[in-house]
């Protein structure tokens, strides 16, 4: 017979309950007995399986991050046409964000006011699986001339994560200022179209340019330093500004005069 508290517990129910409490009350004000009661387990069971409250929080954050990730099967598009395939994948990723507002809130809170030691939250899950799928479709689209070559999969992920999280994070302000709910289910399809059209339009445009093969991964090109003419006047005097503005060719004629 197992000792008391060693029974299996429903992880999903525990983490869902903890997610709601941590989002609503914050880490400091959430108690272990509250999580246990909400999940239908005992505090002893909770302590045995997760350790302390930080242990529960760590697994809850991991759970929240995983809810934004889709499996490779879920990400696989039905079309081989690059633009259509990219639109499919973007739509599915957006739906994952839209359907997981508490995950976004907890991740944002951890980014702004960390509970875990520096760098630990980033190691809880692997990179978003959509990044690899974006990269695959990008390569196909470039080969066919459908997509520009200076945008990377991480650039797409940057835009999607920003726009995918905004309905949740911007909803209170938008509701107060514009009397609209960004999280309203009735707006989901239109908002999804806005996000996917934005990214597809960006990928197929011929304007702008990152100066390399990625907006998020290329160092700025070095620029040649140029001294301000006013400063040159102060340093060299009025007669010497030509040394800054243009190359001066010395006149050696008097050396060779007979």
From TrEMBL:
Matches recorded under PANTHER family: HTH-TYPE TRANSCRIPTIONAL REPRESSOR SCO4008, TRANSCRIPTIONAL REPRESSOR
InterPro entries the UniProt entry points to: Homeodomain-like_sf, HTH-type_TetR-like_transc_reg, HTH_TetR, NicS_C, Tet_transcr_reg_TetR-rel_C_sf
UniProt-listed Gene3D superfamilies: Tetracycline Repressor, domain 2
tRNA processing found in the keyword field: no
Keywords associated with the record: DNA-binding
DNA-binding region location: 31-50
Organism (species): Corynebacterium sphenisci DSM 44792
Span of domain HTH tetR-type: 8-68
Protein name: HTH tetR-type domain-containing protein
Domain of life of the native organism: Bacteria
GO biological process terms, semicolon-separated: regulation of DNA-templated transcription
PROSITE patterns noted in UniProt: HTH_TETR_2
Molecular function as annotated in GO: DNA binding
């Amino acid at each position: 017979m197992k000792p008391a508290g060693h029974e299996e517990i429903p992880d999903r129910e525990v983490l869902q309950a903890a997610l709601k409490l941590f989002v609503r009350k914050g880490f400091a004000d959430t108690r272990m007995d509250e999580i246990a009661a909400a999940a239908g387990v005992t505090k002893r069971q909770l302590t045995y399986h997760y350790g302390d409250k930080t242990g529960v929080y760590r697994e809850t954050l991991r759970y929240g991050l995983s809810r934004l990730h889709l499996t490779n099967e879920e990400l696989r598009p039905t079309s081989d046409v690059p633009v259509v395939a990219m639109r499919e994948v973007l739509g599915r990723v957006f739906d994952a964000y839209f359907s997981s507002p508490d995950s976004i809130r907890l991740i944002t809170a951890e980014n702004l006011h960390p509970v875990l030691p520096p760098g630990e939250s980033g190691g809880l899950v692997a990179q978003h699986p959509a990044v690899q799928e974006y990269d695959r479709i990008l390569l196909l689209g470039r080969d066919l001339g459908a997509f520009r070559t200076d945008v990377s999969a991480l650039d797409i992920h940057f835009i999607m994560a920003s726009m995918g999280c905004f309905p949740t994070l911007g909803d209170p302000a938008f509701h107060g200022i514009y009397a609209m709910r960004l999280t309203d289910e009735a707006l989901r399809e239109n908002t999804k179209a806005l996000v996917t059209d934005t990214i597809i339009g960006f990928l197929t445009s011929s304007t702008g340019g990152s100066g390399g093969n990625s907006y998020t991964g290329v160092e700025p090109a070095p620029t040649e330093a140029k001294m301000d003419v006013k400063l040159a006047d102060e340093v060299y005097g009025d007669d010497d500004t030509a040394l800054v503005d243009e190359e001066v060719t010395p006149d050696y004629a008097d050396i060779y005069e007979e």
